[in-house]
User: Fold Dihydrofolate reductase from Glycomyces terrestris.
Amino acid sequence: MGRVVMYSTVSVDGFIADEHDQPGPLFEWLTSGDVPLDESGALKVSQTSYDYTRAYWDEIGVTVAGRRVFDLTDGWDGVPPAGVDHVVVVTHRPPPDGWDPKAPFHFVNGIEAAVAKAQELAGDRLVEIASGDVGGQALAAGLVDEVRMDVAPVVLGSGRRYFGSVDAQHLLEDPEVVQGHRVLHLRYQVRR
Assistant:
């Protein structure tokens, strides 16, 4: 089974979006370099960030996200982001009206069931869990193996927290650190 990684870009004060679900300048690092990160050419990062991020993206088989993110992105128009094969949406609601049932999206009730479905679909590849409430639920349930953060030099002051509403202590190992342009890439193993 693939490892489970909680991931997002985050402000230095721990937020992944403001109170209106807007990332503001958090993703500036994704357009501040000269190396194309994907085929679109819209994302350009430093060589260091490319080496780190591209290798990570290539390992992801499935992304787990909450219904809030799914709705905010309009379900990525039925195409999983960043070349991922499948998206598992944690939700208590059915797919939206008119949703293409052939799209590689799976609507699952509950974090444990969502991670189990994602691991089944991912095989030996990584399962990425979006940070925020869903990521925090997975961490609290002991389902996360690794925490990755792309820390942007931004203070948002308030908004959506990286770890959601986690209210218990969780220990992480010492970080692996990679410094890119306008971003600090951090990778922590979850202490068991």
Summary: Helices lie at 47-59, 67-72, 111-122, 133-140. The chain has a mean pLDDT of 96.
